[in-house]
Amino acid sequence: MSTNTVIDVDGLDVTYGDFRAVKGLSFQIERGELYALLGTNGAGKTSTLEVVEGHRKATAGTVRVLGSDPGDRAAVRPRVGIMLQESGFAPDLTAAESTRLVGRLSGREDSVDRVLDLVDLAHKADTRVGQLSGGEKRRLDFATAVYGSPELLFLDEPTTGLDIQSRDALWEVVHRLREDGTTVVLTTHYLEEAQQRADRVGLMHQGTFRHQGTVSELTRSLPAGIRFSLPPGAPTPPAASVAQGDGTYAIETFELQQDLKQLLDWAHTHGIELDGLSAAPTRLDDVFRAIGADSTAS
Ligand SMILES: Nc1ncnc2c1ncn2[C@@H]1O[C@H](COP(=O)(O)OP(=O)(O)OP(=O)(O)O)[C@@H](O)[C@H]1O
What we know:
Helices cover about 35% and strands about 30% of the residues. By secondary structure, the protein is α/β, with parallel strands linked by helices. It has 2 domains: about 5-220, Rossmann fold (3-Layer(aba) Sandwich), CATH 3.40.50; about 225-280, no CATH class. The relative contact order is 0.13. The mean pLDDT is about 90. GO terms for molecular function: ATP binding. It is found in: Cell membrane.
């Protein structure tokens, strides 16, 4: 383990009775990384994170967080911020009181006004949590997680229920924290978000990693796609084009730029306008679909 390793998981097993939900999982997350832990439903992400966050004991294997046992709350808590999927705020406390309470428990120094302002909730400081909207509660969860700028930040489905402005604002705060060296562990079902934000992705299925690496490493094994339609009477398009049942053509390619150029040159030569032309790089969604197809086949 290097001195820059923030999370070190080695041979992690989590079992429930006879059921082995996490099977010998190993991974490291380095300082300053944004690591997205993704997976199919029931893959074992929550079970893994519960151990890493110190809420559950590993059945087997070793887990170190910032060099400590994650169960050692006194060592770990002041350095870690956690935004859970469901917050446990008392509904009759105000937003400011909740932030102050969680902030005090974290052991970090900060100002309640500052963090509420970060998530645009300053005007709701004296509103009871029970009277906040779903999106406002989510923003309060985030505010309490980033209180005191933790070294390590867990974001569990952070943008679910947030409108686009609030999402952008949240990612802006994360961006600034990362500039100061904060390490971020993200779980999300918004794959586009992971694709856009993550330095590395761990993709779990049935208790183990199916893939781990950068987004481009994960998507490299699958082709990108070009789609278009042709006007009636057009000549046959380049050989890689495959007619779809719906009158459109598709080209699956590992050489997106080259094949797109060839298609455009062909269209230009024949004076043809390609209707509904789109060229899309491989997305994480496609990697997920491939896992689904693979499991069905096996
Ligand atoms: N307390 C429990 N008792 C028994 N089985 C459990 C328990 N918690 C989780 N499991 C099982 O362990 C497996 C992994 O669950 P886990 O919640 O870790 O998955 P996940 O990747 O977070 O899934 P999702 O994306 O659906 O939330 C699932 O098959 C689940 O049914």
